[in-house]
Prior knowledge:
The complex is a heterodimer.
Chain A: E1 4-5, H1 26-37, E2 43-50, E3 53-60, H2 66-83, H3 91-99, E4 105-108, H4 111-119, E5 123-127, E6 133-136, E7 141-142, H5 166-176, E8 182-189, E9 195-202, H6 208-220, H7 229-236, E10 248-250, H8 253-261, E11 265-269, E12 275-278, H9 296-325, H10 333-342, H11 350-370, H12 373-393, H13 399-412, H14 418-456, E13 458-459, E14 462-463
Helix pairs in contact in A: 5-8, 9-13, 9-14, 11-12, 11-13, 11-14
Chain B: H1 8-20, H2 23-26, H3 28-35, H4 39-63, H5 69-112, H6 118-135, H7 137-162, H8 180-194, H9 210-246, H10 250-257, H11 268-297, H12 304-320, H13 325-364
Helix pairs in contact in B: 1-7, 1-9, 1-11, 3-8, 3-9, 4-8, 4-9, 4-13, 5-6, 5-11, 5-12, 5-13, 6-11, 6-12, 7-11, 8-13, 9-10, 10-11, 11-12
Amino acid sequence: MKQDSKGASSNSSSNTAVSEKLLSSLDENMNIIEQKLGKSSDLVIRRVSISKTACAVVYIDGLVDKDTVQEYVMEALMLDLPSHRTSAKHLYDKIKKASLPIGELSEVEEFAHLLNRLLSGETLLLIDKEAKALVASTKGWRDRGVQESTSESVIRGPKEAFNETLRTNTALLRRKIRDPNLRMDAKRIGKMTQTDIAVAYIEGTAEDSVIKEVHARLDQIDIDGVLESGYIEEYIQDAQYSPFPTIYYSEKPDAIAAGILEGRVAIIVDGTPDVLLVPALFVNFFQSSEDYYQRADIGTLIRLLRLVCFSIALFMPSLYIAFTTFHQEMIPAPLLISLAAQREGVPFPAFVEAMIMELTFEILREAGIRLPKPVGSAVSIVGALVLGQSAVQAGLVSPAMVIVVAITAISSFVFPAYNMAIPIRMLRFIFMFLAATFGLYGIILGLIALVFHLCSLQSFGVPYMSPFAPIVAKDQKDVLIRFPHWGLFTRPTSTAKKNQKRTNPSSKES
Amino acid sequence: MENQTISPRQFMFIVILFTIGSSILIVPTPMAALAKQDAWLSVILSVMAGLLLVFLYNKIGESAKGKTFIQASTYAFGAWFGRLFSVFYLIFIYILAALVLRNIGDFMTTQIIPETPLQFTHILFLLVVIAGAYLGVQVIGRSAEIFIPWLILLLLFMVLSITPQISIDNLKPVLGNGILPVVKTSNIVIGTPFLEMVTLLMIFPYVKESKKTSHAWLLGALMGGGVLLLITLLCLLVLGPDLTALNAYPTYKVGEKINIAGFLEGLEIIIAIIWMITIFFKLIVLYYASSVGIAQFLKLKDHRPLLLPLGMGMVVLSIIAYPDVAYFETFVGETWMSYALTHGLILPLILWAGLAIKNKKSNNT
């Protein structure tokens, strides 16, 4: 599937270092260009003579759309122009004003800019005796096209996902939000990669302080290359030493558009489908865009289910350890007897047993992600049969432990945000250790410490745990429970204080 | 010092947690021993007296004009006498914190984790407290907001599930021994926690919208007192006055009685969780207050470097503070009231008078 896409905004260039101006001799200019770029095989230089004036067309093969270059640059220059007689003197003006049928055409006078534009897929036209060059926007390379999301699948709702081209991604957002206030501020980060970045938000809804902060933090980044939005995330996130993510990312345009509508700021990075969204609150990672497409009651129940899964994924193994090693008296007698009978032949203490099983599962999961698809089924057979059934039959682990690990594992897959599942996986082991040493006392102290840590975080000036701490009564309507859309009459106060009103409460016929 | 502020609501939640604090653990036993079935009446009496105390503290907090207790006393009495004055206050808070730490340690090592040595229980608890105090008062306030709903849910669950075991006869005869024991016994709850609330004068200045602060403090004390009343009533109603007086941890015993559908038993862990949370907040407030107080006493810019050394001292102090629980029960019943009265009523009264004179002087000039 081939799709032509236009690259990033061409008016901006971060490379503003003092640079040489173009000279008036074509030959000298071409020498400098060739010298700077070396003998790259994808550099195409075509020298032509128009109205007895030497000209050169320069572009990088693969970055430009060949049809465009052929039809609108080469043909225009070589076939159409000579038929009108033009004096050498007016040639430049004639070409600039009348001859090139291309939407985006501009002049460049400095080499640095020139190379920058050339390397982002534009076509240069240099003319002898002119100390400037014309740059035609002919960007067009092959990209994946807009495909179905692979990492965030939904039952109901748009299936499309962002792809690796910035311009496609901004277009996907524009198609969803036609508000004239939607801004796409351009930036370029990475000394070598010169990666285009767009900061998208709705002017007048997003907090000015957040926009300013995003720009300030982005401008501070000094790195040689940005290959994925993760590079940016690590530079601009608030909590550098916390396992919890303070920046949300998604590859679904509807999720990002919903965030922008709530007054958040999206950061789109060229070359990756994962778009960042700030400020991100703890609760955002438990919400899926589908919650808003299903009916309100279903959405609410699913959200509550996710919270239950959160606690299972975090605490189940440690509670099992604590109860079986320290607090047997708290287990109801019939259950205790059954558990004790299962653990009869197991040679390990519950903590070691749990560690073995959890580690094994983590290994299996990681292998499952990396392996090529045909081998994946082999891994699941090994996991299910060998590690589950055989380990129990061999008397290495108790069946109850397998159940605990299984339910924990499944619960940790429930979160819509993968980056929230990771801290839970890490913290689970800490809680298991606390449970093995101090029992429930350790778990509860760990929980208190966890809550304190979460309350100390913030994302771009917004408290991470809001609207729980500090409590914002108005915002509770879209956190644990989701009100019907006509009931969500204000935007979250944490992200859109300025433009609160979302819907007219009377717009629903009663 | 710190620019962190908390909202009046967060302050109210902290007050609630502070009021329930360790009192929920240690109060019912001596109350039931002295006032028998009328212990709940003395709780009501002491809550009313406690509200008066809170009223007084609020007045002091307002006349201190954004200063903590330590800063206010140096302001009112000058650098030397003010410092001397603050020493008493700081020692009171610090010892109180050590006692609270020992309370939870005793409970844990006797009921939940008997094999673990007391020291390690204390060290682990204190480590989390230090981490919390390091993060500052704002985070303490926010965390209180997270825990309060859970606390309410757990309490509600406990009350609902124990209802079938309630027997009203346990409260009869009302005022069977006359009113005197009721009045006498009320000093226990006045001493723990209401007189201890003088600690909160260290946090008072960090509350923004100070006009609502006094309201929040009163409301918080009332709600916390309500929970204490509820707990005492439950102990009496379920166990009866004699069993309540005999048990070291009657509330925990009440939890053991919960039985839902013959299967869900052993829910006393809910009580343990409630205690751990409330005691944690009481301890962190005391600890934060004492470290900030000492930092202000020494005119340090930051209280954080003090947190670890203070904690080392506290672990030792909490172990040597008293030899056993019986000693402590006597101490709470007989000595604590006069000790707390000195620091919780007389000291603040002197400070109030000092502040009033000083304010008047500065108004006149």
